[in-house]
Amino acid sequence: MRISARADYAVRAALMLAAKQDGPLKAEAIAEAQDIPHKFLEGILNDMRRGGLVASQRGVRGGYRLARPARDISVADVVRAVDGPLVSVRGVRPPELAYSGPAESLLPLWIALRANVRRILEGVSLADVASGHLPDFVGALAEDPAAWSNP
């Protein structure tokens, strides 16, 4: 599984908005604070706006803000808004795949992978990440010494 730059930037921008409680935040400020190319960020924010995650306001006091409370927006919501489905195989969702012979057991493997990715990303809200208080099950997975090592 690979997290795209687009998804990473989108989550980081959403976290900036989650931390900003007193009004909109300009795209330029987000781009500068998170070292994200401004034009790329504008496209990401537009996708997030179309996805109902952020609202935009024009004018001198304009900018972007979350469209819902941060506790009601999961990391999965943000990734889906900019990248589509969380897990696919060759651009197809696992339930739409069919395998035969020795590859037949790949289907449940891909479905289990999808279920675990969804469990983690849907189980963590922007508020969780912004506050630094991840759910216990995520912390336990991240603390495993083998989590970042390659066999």
Give structural notes.
The protein is mainly alpha-helical and 151 residues long. It has a single domain (5-143), classed as Winged helix-like DNA-binding domain superfamily/Winged helix DNA-binding domain (Arc Repressor Mutant, subunit A). It is 50% helix and 5% strand. It contains seven helices and two strands. It has helices at 5-19, 27-34, 38-50, 75-83, 106-122, 126-131, 136-143, and strands at residues 54-57, 63-66. Helix 1 packs across helix 3 and helix 1 packs across helix 4 (75-83). It is globular. The protein starts with a helix and ends in an 8-residue tail after the last helix. The mean pLDDT is 92. This is Rrf2 family transcriptional regulator. Pfam families: Rrf2 (PF02082). Keywords: DNA-binding. InterPro entries: Tscrpt_reg_Rrf2, WH-like_DNA-bd_sf, WH_DNA-bd_sf. One of its GO terms (molecular function) is DNA binding.
